[in-house]
Amino acid sequence: MRTEEEMQVKGQKAKGKRQNGRRPKASGDRRGAPGALRVRPMTMADKPAVMKISSRIWEGNDYIPQFFDRWAKEGGFWAAELRGRLVGYGKATELAPGELWLEGLRVDPGCRNRGVGSELSRQVVLRTLERRPVSLRLATADVNRESIHIIETVMGFRPYAQYRYFVGKPGKPRLGPPLSTPTVAQALEFIGQSAELAASRGLLAYTWLFRSLDRRYVTELLRCGYVFGYGCTSKLTGLLVLRPHRYHGNDLDISFVAGDRQALAAFRSFLSRVARDCGTKSISSMAASDEMAQALRSLGMQAHPRIGAVPVYGYPI
């Protein structure tokens, strides 16, 4: 698994802390890169340059190529040019009306340590704030110390929630009791009363993307067939939100799981069968609470060996 999913913006350490609701300040880099950096909307004509940069990130396993066409068409996708050459990019995605998520921030490996990452990040935030969002968030891994420095001191974000990253391999398929499809009200109540939602401050994780839980979101998940219940029709004793991995379609991602011992055993059996049918090689999840972390362990998953924590940051709007 990757050591950095949403932020790879290594840049020179910079001054310019944001205080008391002010917008991000200039990075103050003295080598001239930020002053020469031009940030503009991405176009389809930029695709070859983006593909070239992405091929040099994570040994060619960057996920940006999968999203380029859609991101370029929907907007909020920013290209950074230095002396006429594309050297970085970043995306602001609207998860729900007014709820914006920053992702895909990248800098050409050949342009690192020149302040490009700091200035790109700063300008992407400024342009995103022009959309007057209700919320603006992003996430990274605790091992990305340089990214965290930029997020906190240049971009002006503050810690919002913290997750633990779990991974696992599918087990041998086995029979189990049938699961049910809960109603919107049942699913919303079950998740809403969980320790996980309290620890995450209202967010539901999905492959390095974290969205606020509301009726609209639960309705979307149920319509797509991603929500599974356990228990009698009048009262759920367990709930599972299982989705295709955002970057690797055959793999699986658990957005939520909780329940009693019988429910978790039923979910583990169900997960083994779904993994077999999908050709799944890996299962991933994020947990903000001890309760969900323990539930994931009961499904055979373990904490990621290199990533200790996944901090989610919010911009103080």
From TrEMBL:
Looking up SUPFAM superfamilies in the UniProt record yields:
Acyl-CoA N-acyltransferases (Nat)
Give the matching InterPro entries: Acyl_CoA_acyltransferase, GNAT_dom
> Locations of Basic residues compositional bias?
12-25
Record's superkingdom?
Answer: Bacteria
Q: Where is the N-acetyltransferase domain?
A: 37-172
| Annotated GO MF terms | acyltransferase activity, transferring groups other than amino-acyl groups
Protein name, UniProt field? GNAT family N-acetyltransferase
Its taxonomic path starts at: Bacteria, Bacteria division WOR-3
Source organism of the structure: candidate division WOR-3 bacterium
Q: Region Disordered: what ranges?
A: 1-36
